Amino acid sequence: MSSVMPQLPKSLLVDLDDTILAYGAVSGSVWLDICEQYTGRLPGWTAERLSEGINSYRQWFWSDPDRHRRGRLNLVDVRHEIVLGAFRQMGIDAQDVARSLGEDYARERDARVRPFSGAIEALASLQNTGVRMALITNGNSKSQRGKIERFDLERFFDCVLIEGEFGIGKPDERVYLEALRQLGSAPEDAWIIGDNLEWEVRAPQRLGIYAIWNDYANTGLPVGSDARPDRIVTAFSELLDTDSS
Question: Which of 26, 36, 87, 113 is the Cys-Cys partner for 92 at CB 3.0 to 4.6 Å?
C-alpha cells in the first residue's frame, strides 16, 4: 500500500454495491430473518441452522468466476438455485419452500439496501470539486438501474457502465478503458474504488490506475492475499480525507 496518498484525481471510477450502497453488507442478517419466518414450514430446523447452510452453499456458488457471472446476470433464478442446492446438501426435500424462501429473501434484501452513511454527501462533494466520475457496476440492467434510479445516483456521474448493458463486466480491461475514454482521462490521472480485490484492485492496477480498496467490513486483507491496494478505506467518504494514507 502506498505510504503517500496524492490529492484528488481528475477522474474517479466508482463501484456501486458495497461501495456506495450497502448491499452484500446486509445479506447475512436478511437470510437469518427470512429463515426465522420459515421454521414453521421446516420442522426440526432452526433459523440459525438454515441460514448457516444457505450461507455456506452461496459462498461456494459465488466463489467461481463463471458461476458468479451467470448468477449476477440472472438473480431471480440463481437465488432459487442457491436455496435449493443448500436444501439438498442439508437433506431437505422442499422445492416449493426453497423458491418461496428465495423470493422473500430477494424482496427483503432489496427493501433494506441503503447508501452507506456519508456516501451521497461524498459524491456531491467530489462532483463539486470538479472530479469527473464513472459508475461501473457488474450485474443485470434491471437490478442495477433500479438501484441507481431509486437513490438518484446518475446525477453524480459523467458515465454509467452496467455489465448487462455494456455486454462485458469487470475485470475485463475493456470496461475500465471505456470508462476512461468517456471521461477523457488517462489511467495515470484516475483512481478506482470498490470492495472487490480483483475487480477494483488487481485488474485496474495493471492498467496504471490508482486502486483503492473499500474494506467496508473492516476485516483487513485476507490471509495470503497477493493484492496490494494503493490505499485502503473503510468508507467511501474517506476519499475526501486526502491527508491520510
Answer: 87
Per residue in 33-43, pLDDT tens? 999 999 999 99
21-25, long-range: CB within 8 Å, 24+ apart, which pairs?
A: 21/113, 21/114, 21/115, 21/116, 21/119, 21/147, 21/151, 22/113, 22/114, 22/115, 22/116, 22/216, 23/109, 23/113, 23/147, 24/195, 25/216, 25/217
Output the average pLDDT for the chain: 92
Position 216 confidence tier, pLDDT thresholds 50, 70, 90: very high
Q: What is the dihedral of CA 174, 207, 202, 20, to 10 degrees?
A: -70
pTM: 0.88
C-alpha 106/C-alpha 1 separation (Å) is 37
More confident residue, 68 or 206: 206
What the block records as the C-alpha cell of 173 is 480491461
